[in-house]
Amino acid sequence: MxxxxxxxxxxxxxxxxxxxxxxxxxxxxIGRAAAIRMAHAGASxxxxxxxxxxxxxxxxxxxxAAGAQSLYVQTDVTRxxxxxxxxxxxxxxxxxxDAAFNNAGxxxxxxxxxxxxxxxxxxxxxxxxxxxxxxxxxxxxxxVARGNGSIVINTSVSGVRNPNPGLSxxxxxxAAAISLMRSAAMEYASQGVRINAIAPGRVVTDMMLSSxxxxxxxxxxxxxxxxxxxxxxxxxxxxxxxxxxxxxxxxHVLAADGGFLAS
Length: 263
Prior knowledge:
Rossmann fold, 8 helices
């Protein structure tokens, strides 16, 4: 796996000193970048959850090199038993959970809506909505018990405004995840838990590169910044939402999109 550059590994301005953090889908892309940022921001422990063991173990090693305790837990976040086991491991190993980035997600192959199969619908909504529900279900009780915690859910600009013909299921699932986030945020703000969402736009990740877009340079040229985003840039926004720097931010969808939604 490619290691991060010195610039990418520079210390985050958002303090997570002493916190126990969890990242789902942490083996690559935005999840990987966020996990490593957490370690550099002073997190005492960063737990990496995902289905791909080699990638997850490699990110955990990078977090340990940055000074955090870290372990990889093989997890399918669409399975309730896996999620419950994941949170049990976090609490057993580290005693608490302070911050969670629910990043895992999935996108269908680009096709017109009538061409999509019911099984694809199930897979997309399981990964992008059911998984969020399950993570919140098991992350919230230990945070509420301590009266403190912060959760960020990775959604998409597609959940706010659909820029992707042929990805109707992905867009609908991300809109549902945003609605679920807002409902949970209103339920638990008074109990000390802040819940927000990040909505990335065109970011250079494996999922973006496999989305079927023929000309990435044309996509970049159509953005106000005239370039694609990098996972590390989104990770900084995630850390801000998780950190005390965003202590008065609840139920918010932060677009890290190079100006897409404003254009």
